[in-house]
Amino acid sequence: MPIRRLRQNGDKPFDDELPEQVTLVGGQLRLSVNAFAIDDGHEITLIDTGASNAWHPTMGRLPQAMDEAGIDVSRIRVVCFTHTHLDHIHGLVLADGRDAFPHLARLLVPRQELGLFRAEAKLERFHGMAQPFEAGDRLRTHMDVIGAHGHEVGHSCFRVSSGGECILIWGDTVHVPSLQFDRPEVTWEFDDDQDQARESRLRLLALAADDHCFVAGAHLDSPGIGRVIRSGGSFRFEPQ
Predict the structure, then answer these.
(1) pLDDT at 222 over 90
(2) How many domains does the chain have?
(3) Which Pfam families match (predicted)?
């Protein structure tokens, strides 16, 4: 993604010198795209689905990733979206047009974004299946919704707890991990509300650090999971 996607001081393009830890590829920012599977021993809940063939040609590798992880798609009965941007929802449909998850029973979408989801013509056959959720809901025994609005109107984080540990699956809270942990005030061009996105990021970073939660992010570098540590007046990320 071009560096101009970064924003600072409201909605002004980022014009500071990039820190040396921000690695560019051909002069552009590298953006990972991840989805996350929660296995409770009975069935698997998938958080986001990637882009399939709806965006860049280097995306759409979720089926191969699930094969590599030993995940049987027939066990995926529930799909939850952090929000409805195309790189999170279009993986419902494989590149050849078949359903990616033939045994899907529940499709959960942020209430504020049901209209956005139902505007996606390619996903029309799923429109009637979509069920709304909102911040504060408990979706599964160990899975709660935390509002993280800003990047999109219904952008949501899922807190999953088990065995005395927790993980925050936080969607697009961070786009450029090499920069935004140290400088969480930096926003992203596609944040629907820059100020609210910044507030949500700061709140979730503090929550993850203070509660010693793992975090899982759609755009954190692969494998996309780690811990947030307070570092002076900012934060740092420790991949796991």
Answers:
(1) no
(2) 1
(3) Lactamase_B (PF00753)
